[in-house]
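Lab channel / #folding
Pinned by the channel admin:
"Please post every new chain as: sequence first, then the structure tokens as a reply. Keep commentary short and put observations after the output so the thread stays searchable."

First post following the new format, from NK:
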Amino acid sequence: MRGEDGFTLVEVLVALVIASIALAALFRGGIDGMVSAGVAGRMEEAMSRAQSRLAALCHGARLAPGRQSGDDGGGFTWASEIAALGSAVVPRGSDDEPKAPLKAALFGVQVTISWGGRELKLATSCLALGAAT
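Reply from TO:
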């Protein structure tokens, strides 16, 4: 009479199938993680580019209503839209020392960064001061 030493071929095949399914799930999880990390990196880069564009528009350029767009390099494109929201003349100085009034204009600024079928939009309001005419 033979003892039952070892495994049968069916048991080995079942174990192999189970191990294959588990490895496939692990590899899929790893690939999904790498893809998500890549998307997050591109999103972070797009956020940085949009913040830089907003800062340049609100603090470094003369604001005027309109739209502009262009290529930002690295597979990114940008578009900006500026809309006048309102304006007012602001008096300055005192009764003893009058100064020329200023014109305060409020603009709505929106920047869109696009890449690979995705887009990120940031919007803010910017105040521009100038001599009242």
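NK: The chain has one domain: 9-131.
TO: also worth noting, The mean pLDDT is 90.
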